[in-house]
Fold:
Amino acid sequence: MSSNMIIRKFLEPRMIFIICATILICSISYVHIFTPINIVSYDRDIWHHMASLNALMDSPFHAVNPHIVSDEASRTFMPWYVLLAIIGNIFGLTSTKILGVSAVLSLTFFMVGIFLFSQEYYENKWSPIILMMCLFGTWGLSASYTGYYNLETLIYSISYPYGINLALGFIGWWLTLRQLDNDKINFGLLGFIIFLCAFMFATHQLQGAFAIGGMALFSLFSRQNNISIRIALLGSILIGILLSGLWPYYNPLKMVVATGHANWNGNFILFKPANIAQFTGLAMLGILGVYNFEQKKIRYDLLLAIVVITAGYLIGESMSNPISHRFHAFITVFLQISLVAFLLSRFAIDQPFGKLLALTQKISGGLIVILLAVNLYTTVQVYKNTRNYLSHHNTSGPKTWHPDIVNSMSQLKRKVSPDNVMIAHKITAYPVQAYRMKVVSIPRPFPLVKDMAERQQASIDFFSTGVSEAQRWDIIQTYNVSHIIYRLSWLNKSIADDLDKFGTKTIINDDLALIETDFNIHPIDQPRTKKGAL
Structure:
């Protein structure tokens, strides 16, 4: 084969996509497996996921709550994590390495999903690489937030459950389109759709609902097909959702309406309406793609997806729903899919606005390349800065960061036995659970634990001003608290001084204060029901 033929081979659209996807998978997987940066902060989600994987590795099918002392299961005991825990046990992996495996698999399925869906939806050989560029290169403001799929978020959290559901969502959309292209019902394909819907909904209800909703919209409004095919697809989707209710650890259908923390607010200031346009960036031009200029008709699947999800976001925000901001990522996906349709459109220059649309198309293509480079550069810088911080080469960082969280938890575990219960100040509780230790409560929603709101309020009260020593002892006795833990920089000094009265204090890595409670200081007057007892 001549050198010219080899060069032409590598310049083929499919080969360009494969090369770019491979580089992306390898580089981000390397971060998650060998140099993770999501261990830098007390408030990252990694601690909850590590805790669940540890519990599932101990017992994949009969795991106990890894967060608090409770007979109730954790909602993170999902099918994806049970599968990963089994893999972890087979190969002797730690929970952090298992999350690395999750990142590899999620990214791989994501790239496969992008390729299959784009080839099927746009029927253009260049569509996979263009869709990839739009998914990663149209973002405006840079930020890392679980549920998003911009490059910066990928290096932090693609290993989390939303990642596999995002990937499987694209594959589910491809399967839906494949059935719509078939004049006959393919029962094997429908069976796989049923399984996929059940798996996604049981794994992550919010991300699953988004993926499944997309499948339903494509079933209704994509392609030209007979009504029986559409009914078969919608019926399969519904069966899959209902079958998810058979998941033994919890009923995903009940999780949709369940709550576990009345005071929890998950809103992130970046995703307030005033900032939303800045973060959406060039993806907003996707609104031009909801109209098919070649066939002169509206793409109702994309239009309704954008309208319905936007309505959900606005209604949620008006009601101060703590998860409504997550809808923005879902809106952006469909805007980006629509933007690709616009970029692949062919305009008749003699038609009204034909020249303007063609010029907009060319400018958009150039801007995407520039924004992709900016997002890539920003992501690399974020990674380097965080690694420098973790290596103590850079001492500046947000208040929630600390370079020695992992080391601190390892030291803490040597001082606290597995049957002890700690009461922790705010999000200091988060990493504790990742090292097989238990706390009274964690400031996150736990809908399966019936007394979680009571536990959370007790933890708030314990570290609040104006609380008497007797009240604190009452909380200690109620939950059988053996240790008190807080960050030195987060707790009011007067409260910290009051807590010194409860036992012996140890300082860990100049960051954590650990107090071993001494019940001899305040003997129990009468027997109590110890809710924290193991």
In short: Residues 526-530 have pLDDT under 50 and may be disordered.
